[in-house]
Amino acid sequence: MVEESLVIMRERARQKFQDVQSLIISSLRALDSRADLKSDNWKRDGGGGGLTCVLKKGAVFEKAGVNFSEVWGELPPEMGEKLVGKAQSLPFYATGTSLVIHPYSPMIPTVHANIRYLEVDEKSWIGGGADLTPYYLFEEDAVHFHQVMKSVCDSVKRGSYPKLKTWCDEYFFLKHRGEARGVGGIFFDYLGKEDPENIETHFSLAAALGDRFCEAYLPIVEKRKVESFTDEQKRFQLVRRGRYVEFNLIWDRGTLFGLRTGGRTESILMSMPPEVLWEYDHQVKPGTREHKLSEILKQPRDWV
Amino acid sequence: MVEESLVIMRERARQKFQDVQSLIISSLRALDSRADLKSDNWKRDGGGGGLTCVLKKGAVFEKAGVNFSEVWGELPPEMGEKLVGKAQSLPFYATGTSLVIHPYSPMIPTVHANIRYLEVDEKSWIGGGADLTPYYLFEEDAVHFHQVMKSVCDSVKRGSYPKLKTWCDEYFFLKHRGEARGVGGIFFDYLGKEDPENIETHFSLAAALGDRFCEAYLPIVEKRKVESFTDEQKRFQLVRRGRYVEFNLIWDRGTLFGLRTGGRTESILMSMPPEVLWEYDHQVKPGTREHKLSEILKQPRDWV
User: Fold this and answer.
1) Taking CB atoms and an 8 Å cutoff, what residues of chain A touch B45?
2) Which of A303, A100, A105 is nearest to A217 (CA)?
3) Does B239 touch chain A if contact means CB atoms closer than 8 Å?
4) What span, in angstroms and rounded, lies between the C-alpha atoms of B244 and A162?
5) A225 close to B (CB below 8 A)
6) How much is the ipTM here?
7) Residue B222 and residue B155: Cα distance in Å, rounded?
8) Of A184, A261, B141, B246, which one has the fewest beta carbons inside 10 Å?
9) pLDDT tens by residue, B69-118
């Protein structure tokens, strides 16, 4: 029997996450009316389902996926052990909205955001985050993105940004490359697991992040979509997208959790870039913009 | 102090694996003299090094990597536990040659092969395999490849092919897609770990596989390089290459072992295809060649 307070939290989370998905999809379409929208309502064997929306072949967005899901069922014992320390099959409930946007122009950064609510056994918690992955870095864009992230954090709990910023830098790191995925943002997980009395506050953080995602990202798109770029710069973007794939498939706990527990493969892998290149031992020349980016990725920076 | 018999085995393995690399590189160049060859001699911090050879932008081969390595040092405790059941830092020695060939034409299959010798603590063993990944399947090519694989197995131990063929089908399987990577081949691992008296026989298997790799693959290349193909067929190849990436980064123990234990990233990821596409929810039409391939990948077949 699920407690009444949890049922109410489920309802609120689902409603908010669905609203966030609608808001973001309509904002993206307003900015790029040429993109094709594909919407898939899907059911999950074992409980729940979702709505996967993918925009593609736009004037600005090469591929933008925004996924909502609400799923429940039984977790395999090894996941139960990992998440709540009980090596047994446990009931779970999860709802979330996640997105990855791959613009066509290498002058516009890729972005990811995710907000989620989970229950396993008697525990429940909130997770989420947003991070920016530029190919050609305009520092003021990184500053703007982080300023909105800081403001989101401060609106819920003053002074909470530095911790969530560092958490993001640590999470979105490719250990096998010794470099960050991008210029970061914020990341949080398991909030409320050990302090259930604060779950309301933690939920507000996820909600604020969802509500203000567009404010963090779309002004950057508007500003950079007019920048021209060369074929060579496009090629550099495709090589860097390879790093994005490497992060998602090797290190991202969310992706691996989904793929290994029978999640809907196409919805999970909507995060993959549309076109990617791997070149053996790709190098960048000292002094170039490409080199500057790779230097910044080696050592996370403070942007606000 | 390493036993004398092990020292001799190391020498023989290294020598054979280096010879196999040279043989394969020269055979590939003979077939495609237009390809650029890049050879990197590299050293590993902590012990050993290797030679990574990559052919690219050929008339036939878009990217072909053949890597030899010989490395030693201390394994992290979690790997010691996994490999020999001792959760402590253990000395290891490993040498091997591995290759992945990505032809330009979607009518020519991609191929992978690998032979390796490992020592951890007091145990030593042989591993290896070869498997074929077609985009447009010519059944006679799969039959030819498997016939050579069977002959390699029979030359060492009559009747050993079926087990190694099944092992390959089970290993090169994308669980999150419910499909095989390709039409398989043979795979073996940990040979000699529990029966050190047979290490000679097991080594002969790896050696025979290395010696006869070209016989298994190059006639297929010769035969299919004259086939014409459309842009749409090329596009299908790029989408299928995405599955290759997914296998290597999510499921391949060898790749993950290398990347997580500080292996040389560029040598490990030379297996990545040069150009790749991910399309959301890519579908194939019933009755087409693309559909036929996807049906075959769902259920491994006997080819000889």
Assistant:
1) none
2) A100
3) no
4) 39
5) no
6) 0.94
7) 25
8) A261
9) 999 999 888 888 888 888 888 999 999 999 999 999 999 999 999 999 99
The closest CB to that of B278, out of A52, A272, A279, belongs to: A272
Q: Determine whether A112 is an active site residue.
A: yes
Please give the sequence-ordered ranges of beta strands (E in DSSP) within chain A, or none if there are none. Answer: 36-43, 48-56, 61-75, 90-103, 110-120, 123-133, 173-174, 179-180, 184-191, 275-277
- Which residues of B are known catalytic residues? 112
Domains and CATH numbers, chain B: 4-298 (3.40.1500.10)
Quickly count: other Cβ atoms within 10 Å of residue A83's Cβ.
19
Residue type, A267: S
Quick: pLDDT tens for A156-214: 999 999 999 999 999 999 999 999 999 999 999 999 999 999 999 999 999 999 999 99
Q: Which residue of B has its CA nearest to A247?
A: B249
Q: How many CA atoms lie within 13 A of B289 on its CB side?
A: 13
- Could you tell me if A245 lies within 8 Å of chain B, comparing CB atoms? yes
Contact, B55 vs B78, CB < 8 A? no
Confirm or reject contact between A76 and chain B (CB < 8 A).
Answer: no
Chain B contacts of A253, Cβ < 8 Å?
Answer: none
For residues B90 and B130, is the Cβ–Cβ distance under 8 A?
no
